[in-house]
């Protein structure tokens, strides 16, 4: 991923990740070089369908999101942190995605995705966290598709990963992570992760 990216291409890539139909607006708050790393912060307004039961707690379909990204071109690492800043008492979701060069095949990129999900709604927090986890699994599939779409636009003649393979692997690993999380903490926040191997 970093072999042929210029700083302009990395900024373009970071901006394209959020460019989809469910993103209503995006504003760059800051973008600067810190210790040789490109650090960006953006505010996004996103929309998403909510189930009928959630309308009891939330009366709108959009939420504000903070996205922070750190591009370390020297070490070939891109890290994004995304968290909601609205409705955090109902459900707080913090997501971290790390893009690194593949150890086995340096021409490929590995994306590792983590999510921390919490709810402070008394009596419903476990169900809300479980819903957030299921949404995380569903969005893992979309993330791969969006990532491939951006790369396909940047490099139209390159081969991209087939979404079905990655999703099947991701679903299995997420299911195992949920089972472990359930056993470890019955009333605590949920944590989920997606590892490439």
Automatic annotation (TrEMBL):
InterPro entries associated with the record: PRELI/MSF1_dom (IPR006797), Slowmo/Ups (IPR037365)
GO-annotated cellular components: mitochondrial intermembrane space
Domain PRELI/MSF1: 1-159
Domain of life, source organism: Eukaryota
Pfam families according to UniProt: PRELI
Protein name per UniProt: PRELI/MSF1 domain-containing protein
Organism phylogeny: Eukaryota, Metazoa, Ecdysozoa, Arthropoda, Hexapoda
């Amino acid at each position: 991923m970093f072999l042929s990216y210029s700083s302009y291409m990395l900024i373009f890539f970071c901006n394209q990740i959020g460019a989809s139909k469910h993103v209503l607006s995006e504003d760059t708050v800051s973008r600067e070089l810190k210790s040789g790393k490109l650090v960006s912060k953006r505010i996004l307004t996103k929309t998403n369908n909510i189930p009928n039961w959630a309308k009891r707690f939330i009366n709108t379909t959009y939420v504000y999101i903070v996205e922070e990204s750190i591009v370390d071109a020297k070490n070939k690492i891109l890290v994004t942190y995304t968290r909601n800043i609205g409705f955090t008492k109902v459900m707080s979701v913090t997501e971290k995605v790390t893009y690194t060069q593949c150890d086995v095949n340096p021409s490929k990129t590995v994306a590792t995705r983590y999510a921390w999900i919490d709810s402070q709604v008394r009596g419903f927090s476990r169900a809300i966290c479980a819903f957030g986890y299921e949404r995380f699994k569903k969005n893992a599939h979309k993330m791969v598709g969006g990532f491939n779409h951006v790369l396909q636009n940047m490099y139209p003649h390159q081969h991209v990963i087939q979404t079905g393979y990655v999703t099947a692997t991701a679903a299995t690993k997420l299911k195992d992570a949920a089972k472990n999380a359930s056993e470890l903490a019955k009333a605590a926040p949920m944590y989920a992760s997606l590892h490439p191997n």
